[in-house]
Amino acid sequence: MQIPKFLSDKGFVPNVTINPALNYLGTETAFGFGAEVIKVENSGKFPQIYKFHVGDTGPTTPEPIINVAIEALKNKQTKYGHFLGYPQVRQNIATYWSQVRGVEIKPENILLEPAGKSAIELTLQTLIAPGDKIIVQDPGYPVYESLAEFYHHGQVLHWQAHKETNPSAIAQGKTLEFRVEDLEKLFSENQNIKLLVINTPQNPTGMMMPKETLEQVAELVKQHKFFVIFDDIYDQIVFGGRKHFSFLSIPGMLDWTVNLNGYSKNYAMTGWRLGFTVAPAWLIEIFGRLAINKWSNVNKMEQIVAGAIYGDVDLDGYHYKSVKDEVQKIINQDFVEYEKKGGFVSEALNLLKPYIVCNEAEGAFYLFPSFQRVLDLKYVKEDLGLKSDVDLRNWLLNERGVATLSGSDFGEMGRGYIRFSYAEDRERHIIPGMKHILKVVIELIEKSGEVPSIKVEEVDGKVGELVKKYFVDNLY
Ligand SMILES: Cc1ncc(COP(=O)(O)O)c(C=O)c1O
């Protein structure tokens, strides 16, 4: 029996045979690598680790949300709750979702669940029969591929992002693009495609999928009859006046969509494990049956919170007032801060073009710059012996105290890229961290006998100008 690598690496040898599909179960590197970062941090090797690896939110949960939770606990709302989510809670979510998506969503279309991620497994266990194919984005959020491979090994196809080569497009911050023509090709070459995963704004790139692309995908849905997992968990974190566009807003697509959303990112509630899914009522019925078998129900106190974020909740003789407006004001400020940091990091990294080529920050709190030219440097290849973005990520952490994630953790197309999260604190991590990483890369360029576009002595000044541009001149 082949033991999964994540066990054998730790020396575990099970004394019985185990599910061979575990060999195909991947991971979300952000969690494992986080432990590595803490190890290096605790070793005291560096005065500080600059953290660009986290998938967690910078801000903390808004106070009014915490107060609802405290009130619910004081009311002893601590027993089992409703397996689908209390009707009024689902009604509040449905009313809000109908408003923001411009299509009628009913409570029967809503499942309250332990965070957004739960919807991935429910969908893969419900919709995929033997021989069906699943398309995931590459690069993309790794849990899709991991669980799809675990449950349906060999049935996964990749919608690979097109690498932009046009210099004027690159100058405008477009480096990767998911093109419908590539998707059409997958449909022409494969039978039984049942499911397509779309995530926008996207982890790991921070890109948003344009309305026109989504409308073209909807045409393919009509033609080929497949479902879309539409993951818009970062839907409110969008920049530059862009508007998030939902697949549900396209007429008829509610019948073909599993919409993964929740409270983790927008409301800075990652640790609460609270989310919801919007889907056709027959699918919610199946998901509810699976929910009973898996987790019974979402924590009752959190069900009250989930409802109060969008409207009033009455339960067991207690009344919980809506916190919608106060909370929206607070999180809108969080989004302004994300936008500033995203613009700053993108521009700072592009100071070292063409060695680093970074896309424009469109949404979420990620950027996905290409470090291919850094990896191609003589000193990096020959003297340091770094062969991949994974090697570079490890070297940056262990030798220079900068934590990032490697692009290939998000798929084959991520090779040569590094994922930067800018969720962390601006003064402690983002600003000094950018200065530090630029100096590190300049050192690599110079040691290779090449000439960078800026010198080490210029970094503080150049970054200082960007600090003024993004953080000082336009205070909110
Ligand atoms: C694209 C995407 N989908 C889903 C999730 C999971 O969200 P949750 O923490 O609500 O399970 C994440 C978390 O990082 C994500 O980036």
Automatic annotation (TrEMBL):
Claim: Membrane is one of the keywords in the record: no
Protein name, UniProt field: Aminotransferase
EC number annotated for this UniProt entry: 2.6.1.-
Cofactor(s), by name: pyridoxal 5'-phosphate
Pfam family for this entry, one: Aminotran_1_2
Keywords: Aminotransferase, Pyridoxal phosphate, Transferase
Protein source organism: Candidatus Magasanikbacteria bacterium GW2011_GWC2_37_14
Lineage, opening ranks: Bacteria, Candidatus Magasanikiibacteriota
Enzyme class, UniProt record, top EC level: transferase
CDD domains: AAT_like (cd00609)
GO terms classed as biological process: amino acid metabolic process
Record-linked Gene3D superfamilies: Aspartate Aminotransferase, domain 1, Type I PLP-dependent aspartate aminotransferase-like (Major domain)
Annotated Aminotransferase class I/classII large domain residues: 61-423
GO MF term list: pyridoxal phosphate binding; transaminase activity
Family indicated by similarity: Belongs to the class-I pyridoxal-phosphate-dependent aminotransferase family.
